[in-house]
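Q: I'm writing up a methods section and want to include an example of the input and output format. Could you take the sequence below and give the corresponding predicted structure tokens, formatted cleanly so I can copy it straight into the document?
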Amino acid sequence: MTNRKYRHHFGTLGVIFALCILPWSSPSPAWANGLMEAASLELRLIMQELGRNMQRITDAISREDWAQVAELAPKVATHPEPPLAEKTRILAYLGDKAITFRSFDEGVHEAALVMEEAAQRGNGMAVIQSFARVQEGCLGCHQSFRKPFIEHFYNPR
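A: Here is the clean output for your methods example:
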């Protein structure tokens, strides 16, 4: 693997946070009823863009459009982040689980960058393998964090 010019740090939520809540990016009754905080609106837009990029990568892979994959992969790896106040709330909520969360984040970040490099070389098999690692990171995050995250931030008692 080549040396990376950029890496996510613990203070950033990075790709995994986005992918963990990607399934919530489409309109839902909670959004329609206005139950989400105003600060979540920016996060929702970030998630919608990530969802579009992941769908576009899937489409590009199916067409073997490696140039498109190479263009989109860094957008998954280094997407915009939610506002600082929101990130702070999330990290406070995660507590000691932030280490696991960070591990998912770094894995997806690295896999997306490897996918970019493979696409630049036109190596379809390596693109698909790294895309699978991105998806595995998403699934791991979903299984570890999605339900408790929704309950804590979106369905407070």
